[in-house]
Amino acid sequence: MSGIAGIVHLDRSPIDVRTLQRMTDAMTHRGPDGAGTWVDGPAGLGHRMLRTTPEALHERQPLCDESGQVCLVLDGRVDNREELGKALEPKGATLRDCTDAELVLKSYLQWGEEAPVRILGDFAFAVWDGRHHALFCARDVFGIRPFNYYCGGNFVLIASELHQLFHDPRVKKVPNEGMVAEYLSGQITHCEETLWEGILRLPAAHYMWVRPGGIEKRRYWDFDLSKEIRYKTDEEYANHFLDLFREAVRCRLRSCGPIGSYLSGGLDSSSVSVIASELLREQGRTQPLDTFSLVFPGMSCDESQYIQATVEHAGLRSHLSPPVPPSMDYYHEQASLYQDFPGWPNGGAMMALPIQEGLRQAGTRVMLTGLGGNECVEGSSTHFEELAREGKFLELVRTAKSDAPLWGSPWWRLVLDYGVRPNIPSPVKRVLRPLRPRRRQFRWLAPEFQERTALLHRAQAFAAPPGATPVQQAMHSCFYSGWKVHAHEGDDRDSAFLGIDCRHPFFDRRLAEFAFALPERQRSHSGLVKIVLRNAMQGRLPEPVIRRRVQADFTPVFASTVNAMDGQEPFSGAAITERGWILPSELSSSLQKARAGDSDHLWTLWAAFGIEIWYQWVLMPFVG
Fold it and tell me: How would you classify residue 221: left for phi > 0, otherwise alpha for psi between -120 and 50, otherwise beta?
């Protein structure tokens, strides 16, 4: 976890060093261990350092090559260090200190724009190449590390966090109504746009060239859908998966201090924690792995029994904390600091702040998580179709109810959309189509606002392509959706706020490539998901965790937070109503339903409140 900043003048005029320094200072929370800037006429790069690996203890950034003409800033971690080093040696590359930053810089010098595909890990980096007066930038394949930029015609700015860009007075605060509409509709689809006009994200698995002739972006990696893995037995699949999983965890254990693991009690985080503990013991560590968990006594989402079972089974050391929901002041501060959407009640603030003291006492800066398990090994919707096709409707309903929290949809819609509709013969669909009532789209958004932002088109433009297979649909929703971009950047922001480097073994390219080349029955079958993971972890996890069919649903926590803040100013929606974005009567109706226990509107309700906070605390002071 670090932070980057940069300014490039395409007309070759010198940059303002003070602006670069302000952009770098604005992200001190991302890198309290060191700061550096580098300037060469029309280009300047800034860096903040959080040291979490042994190599980082003597790493200095920005980092130049021997000629001084090529300079790099990196926020990230290289997981295939040995492989990269061996590939660079025959090319004559000389490694001075073998830091991650040097490996990335030497990879660029050797392979140019082909370098990112050779690097495994979470990263966002920029290289100023003075030999060609060009800036090369790249982001990791899943977009774990953030990368924002602004193109002003004859200049380009880059930053880890978008608020840094406003420290250049040439960047104006103009709201991007298209993205505002996506938030308010609960359908975040765009992967590049932000809430501000002109401020964009570099998409995951993309590189970007910035040259006097303009900006060029390209995807450098994607899943190979022609790849198939076929074994004769479940055991062979499980063994191969386990080998990759262990390696994904192992390469994320590289740390210069104590390592911790978030343990929710679910299958994914339990698997990561147990494998990490196993590997650390193999490396000679005698102390048990520290795990950190939130517990919710008396609530349906409490997973204490599964946490305790895993801790006892694997010999882990457990740190339990109750949640402490943030006050409205917290969300005001987040919006003001980041100049962005303030976050969600079930996000990192509620999940991480209560255990911050435990992390500090343990001296833990590196945390493993189970994020990515749902995306990589859960499977697609075909298990709903199978159950409906086999006439197992009771099991279909039971499975849909258990999966609803994972899909973020009501259980009855899962049954209808993925169980019933796919099995209706086409001639019957044609007969029924005219009889279907038309649902009112985005009912609380003002019609003029919807039309002005082309909201319906935006929602459809980023949908899975027609005729997409179940696997392609799963890939699209898990890796190419605007929601995933938003989620990754929210996780990164919360981790940076706490000074923690979160690492996600399931978001390992090798593991994901293997998982999506599996037969679907190894991912989901007859209502049970993550088949290959369950088989791989047999004997390593306690049976109650292995057999779990239902993940915790944090809707009650979400609802309690909304109810606790009900009546406070953002819940009126006054500012965004005055702006002409929403219909106050519809917002009021949805709020009344939420008070009555209807959870279907919670996400869009909070989106409206979050945008209201952003507008009041970021835009209105600026306009005023």
Answer: beta
